[in-house]
Amino acid sequence: MIEVPARDPAPGRIAALLRRRRMPEAFVRAFLAARATALRGPAWIREKEIEPVEELPRLPSDGPEASAAERARTVAITLNGGLGTTMGMQAPKALLHAANGRTFLDLTLQQAEAAGVRPLLMNSFATDRTVRAEIEGRDGPVECFLQHLAPKLDPGRLAPVRASGRPELAWCPPGHGDLYTALGTSGALARLLDAGVRYAFLSNVDNLGGWPDPRVLARFIASGAPFLMEVVRRTEGDWKGGHLARRRGEGGLVLRETAQCAPEDREAFRDAGRYRYFNANNLWVRLEALKEALDRSGGFLPLPVIVNPKTVDPRDPDSAPCVHLEQAAGSAIAILPGATAIEAPRRRFAPVKTTANLLVLRSDIYDVGRDGRVEPRRKPPLLELDPDRYRFVSDLETRFPHGPPSLVGCDRLRIEGDVRFGRDVVCEGPVTVIAQGAEAVIPDGACLSGVVRV
């Protein structure tokens, strides 16, 4: 539990700051409630409280699709607030070249159009202006709404931080769980319901595998559930994110994120055999059920709070420490009665969080169809890129000036040191490239296999 004065001035100061930034009252209440929860100490979801989900229904390889009328009553909401700062970007991640020379935004909008659903972008204050300029003049309307803005808090008393000289650094987005509140406060939810829209598909802009598949929509509609989470079979690499579990005794589904796992439970958390289902963050929601839940709770959903440690300047690890209070959209599975989950094929989960993910997506592993769908030709290989040389997108593009090597015959690629790749390079089987000099170069047309020293 965090120690605070008997007369804590922070809530009043936080409320004043939020109102000064014209944040709506529902969000002011939501943020103050989140802070009050965080003050009580870590909200662990402990191992003794949950048990594994043994089996879930699978999405069949074929099956009925939602009708054209049902698709017309569906919106695809893309979570589009990120700048890709972990990859050194300062522009919206949505505008990054993803595959076949097209951006994440290009492909996301094409997927929605091909599926026959209406697109809707949830932007952040960091991405909104640039993204709106990009979509201006496109064929077909593309609507946007804004997620809220939250103050960064000091780790000691959860009071707002100060960022002298750069006031923008004192603010952050409150996590993608803010989606539900923002849909309400922006008026987007009311406009959708008035237009006859009843179903929503939610996904991350950097997961091009998560498209609004009419087969999943048909299953969701037939289920009668207010909320459906797509999960995939977990691998050993799926440790940063959330796994699905059941509450002991109650039997209800719950999402446990990395930050909600107590230190003594970390080994169990990482056990992919025990907790076999991983949240793909492809979520389906009945909008009427969401509105009812928001109305019951004063305009926001009381989702679990994640206290995320950061630095005030995200690009400077030596800057002052702070915390972001965040919530995960998938945690609504424990809030909405009757919420359920379905196992989706792994191809529906292909997020790009690192430059290694991006290199694979840009490679010949993936095909891009006319409908904007991105499908793997085979199981993607594991890539391990030297973190000191390939951390940022600019690093990647400098060292692969002609694009990725062919990876369709590669099982694993590991690069140690500073290596520049030529044109039309092919990797086959397991490949380890070790730089022995300051300017290691793979020549044009090289075929790599095994251990390669350059």
CATH architecture of the largest domain: Alpha-Beta Complex
Q: If strands are numbered along the chain, what order do they take across the biggest sheet? A: 6-5-2-9-13-10-16
Q: Count the DSSP helices.
A: 12
> Total strand count, please?
24
CATH superfamily of the largest domain: Spore Coat Polysaccharide Biosynthesis Protein SpsA, Chain A
Overview of the structural elements:
The chain has two domains: 10-348, Spore Coat Polysaccharide Biosynthesis Protein SpsA, Chain A (Alpha-Beta Complex); 355-453, Hexapeptide repeat proteins (UDP N-Acetylglucosamine Acyltransferase, domain 1), CATH 2.160.10.10. The protein has twelve helices and 24 strands. It has helices spanning 10-20, 25-39, 68-72, 104-115, 128-135, 179-185, 188-194, 214-223, 266-269, 287-296, 355-362, 393-399; strands spanning 50-51, 74-80, 97-99, 102-103, 118-123, 143-146, 150-151, 171-172, 199-204, 227-233, 242-247, 253-257, 277-286, 306-311, 321-326, 340-343, 366-368, 374-376, 382-385, 406-416, 419-421, 426-434, 440-442, 447-453. A seven-stranded mixed sheet has the order 6-5-2-9-13-10-16, with helices on both faces. Strands 19-20-22-24 form a four-stranded parallel sheet, covered by helices on one side. The radius of gyration is 23 Å and the shape is globular.
